[in-house]
């Protein structure tokens, strides 16, 4: 038998309105009353009809998250954080996988799911500003990542240049002077790869350390194989860095494998720093020092920005919101303790 608000109210000895206020998380309910109603909810096994609640507001209760690559642990972990953040507001998250292709990103951003979702969180790689200027869909949109569009959509990112400089500064502090960067790309000047390369170059220059192009390792993608190939090419060319700063943890893990195969010990011969703080980095034979973006903060800011646009469509958008990062020091630069 389905338990109703009336059943909960009678069991708790309060009004239906009070139960409704607790269920809808209104702030003006006293802690004692909230605990009393929650106890009745738990005892009776009451479950609110979220669908009906959203429909009363003209909503579906679903938001979408579109990311370039679900197979990348960073985006998988970020998706989990977004799902958790949305659940706190009783929203369900629909996942879209764009493969980082402009056509797919345009399709998603133009609202092909407009009748299904209340809002969209999009992490684009190839999408251009003109694609969004032509957007006719009025579903609220929040952008993630480092591409800046100067458009009326909230944008959430970390400071990639500052984060990269912190990683390189750590390596310099460990006495490294020949620091390579693996992860350069020749396309799309606004990609995070270019910002991280810029941070690498700026920190070396500030320390008076050379940053020749021979220490820049280009990649075709950002997976383990890409890092392995870039590291092998650099070593085969006779370049022997004493440290590597990688675009992400996957590239770093690939590079570490090649260093091991070539008889170079991490960190004694070559120290390595990654980026993203994926769980895999904590379980290798040598744990990985990495830049850790605050994924929970990114997810929370994205969901709150999106729901803020739903609740107050008149509020100004186009804000630049920055999440924090930290450097997590592990064995790939410190050695085993």
Strand order of the largest sheet: 2-1-3-4-5-11
Q: Helix/strand-derived class?
A: alpha/beta
Q: Report the biggest beta sheet as strand number plus sense, adding barrel if it closes.
A: 6 strands, parallel
Strand content: 15-25%
From the spread of the alpha carbons, the general shape counts as elongated
Helix-strand pattern: HHHHEHEHEHEEHEHEHEHEEHEEH
SSE topology sketch:
Layout: H1 5-12, H2 16-23, H3 31-44, H4 50-56, E1 62-67, H5 73-87, E2 92-97, H6 102-109, E3 119-122, H7 129-133, E4 141-144, E5 154-157, H8 160-173, E6 179-184, H9 192-206, E7 216-218, H10 224-236, E8 243-246, H11 249-261, E9 271-275, E10 289-293, H12 295-311, E11 320-322, E12 325-328, H13 331-334
Parallel strand pairs: 1-2, 1-3, 3-4, 4-5, 5-11, 6-7, 6-8, 8-9, 9-10
Antiparallel strand pairs: 10-12
Helix pairs in contact: 1-2, 1-3, 5-12, 8-9, 10-11
Structure description:
The structure is a single chain. This protein is of the alpha/beta class and 337 residues long. Helices cover 42% and strands 16% of the residues. It has a six-stranded parallel sheet with strand order 2-1-3-4-5-11, sandwiched between helices. The chain has a six-stranded mixed sheet with strand order 7-6-8-9-10-12, sandwiched between helices. It starts with a helix and ends with a helix. The mean pLDDT is 87.
